[in-house]
Design a protein that fits this description.
Helix content: over 70%
Order of helices and strands: HHHHHHHHHHHHHHH
Structural class: mainly alpha
Distance between the termini: 39 Å
Number of helices: 15
Shape: globular
Number of domains: 1
Length: 301
């Protein structure tokens, strides 16, 4: 039987594994164009993940059916933000922007979450956090303008960065609403219902997309991308993240977010041949310290 110490050692080791699972979604996103369409990919991903989670939590979902009927709209909203926008729109953005851009822009999401928590949830915001917000957002913009601050007119603006920015904002709203709307459900049952809300929103878009004349013929590679997205960054990352958080705490597990761009850059370089530019390195040098300043827990006095 595992001991508390062995669980802690395993959770600490998983801090190096979880970012690779998150980064896998960016590789799937960049591999999908010409193979499977964005809404179809997101629909398949969350249908598979949601069905498995619902099976595991079936008893709890049945016991809580009255609660579910009362606040069904919450799961629809969360599914729209977390699975529809943060799912399909990331895949839309990946058509024209790089894996590293996706990872770095997403890495700044804790900044928006912190700002939203102050405005919406009444949490405190100190000067250190304000400095972090400015630094991190400067890093995001540095990535988007490719480092050409003095010659913005020469920058080739990429639509994909706009899709990723929208998805990043949606992820912040998703995280804040989960705090705003407490639930009696366990993590597995709640995530299963959020998946159901996202799948309901994705379904009509996926149907239109699937039967469009421009849609590529379904292949075994499309199936592989959908299954990979469902099992690796879907169920795998969520399950391991939640378990590790229970064992060693949320603040320590949060470092996985900062490692994801590194993993994504290495994976994209190794598997997709994407180059790493100086503007990525400078953006990371701004984003990571900025996010750290915003999210760091102050030392007790």
């Amino acid at each position: 039987m595992p001991t508390a110490n062995s669980d802690e050692r395993l959770a600490a080791a998983l801090l190096w594994v979880i970012p690779a699972l998150w980064a896998a979604n960016y590789i799937v996103a960049r591999s999908a164009p010409g193979v499977v369409e964005p809404y179809t990919l997101a629909f398949g991903r969350w249908s598979i993940a949601g069905a498995l989670l619902a099976f595991l939590a079936r008893s709890e979902l049945w016991r809580q059916r009255h609660h579910i009927r009362t606040v069904w709209y919450q799961y629809l909203v969360l599914g729209t933000l977390g699975m529809f926008i943060c799912g399909a729109w990331v895949y839309l953005g990946a058509r024209t922007t790089s894996t590293m851009n996706i990872a770095l822009i997403y890495a700044a999401s804790p900044v928006l979450i912190a700002i939203g928590a102050v405005i919406w949830l009444g949490e405190r915001f100190v000067l250190r956090q304000a400095v972090g917000v400015v630094v991190a957002l400067a890093g995001v913009m540095h990535v988007i303008v490719k480092g050409h601050w003095m010659a913005l007119e020469t920058v080739r603006w990429v639509a994909g960065d706009g899709w990723i920015l929208a998805a990043m904002v949606s992820w912040a709203a998703y995280a804040l609403l989960q705090k705003k709307w407490p639930s009696p459900l366990g993590a597995t049952a709640r995530l299963a219902l959020i998946c159901a809300g996202g799948v309901a929103m994705l379904l009509p878009f996926a149907v239109v997309e699937f039967f469009s004349p421009e849609t590529p013929v379904w292949t075994s590679r499309a199936s592989l991308l959908v299954i990979t997205a469902a099992m690796v960054p879907g169920i795998g990352a969520y399950w391991l993240y939640g378990w590790s958080q229970k064992v060693i705490g949320a603040s320590r597990v949060a470092v996985t977010l900062y490692l994801t761009p590194l993993y994504a850059a290495l994976a994209a370089w190794g598997t997709l041949g994407e180059p790493l530019g100086w503007h990525h390195l400078m953006g990371a040098a701004l984003i990571f310290p900025g996010v750290y300043l915003v999210t760091r827990t102050p030392a007790p006095r």
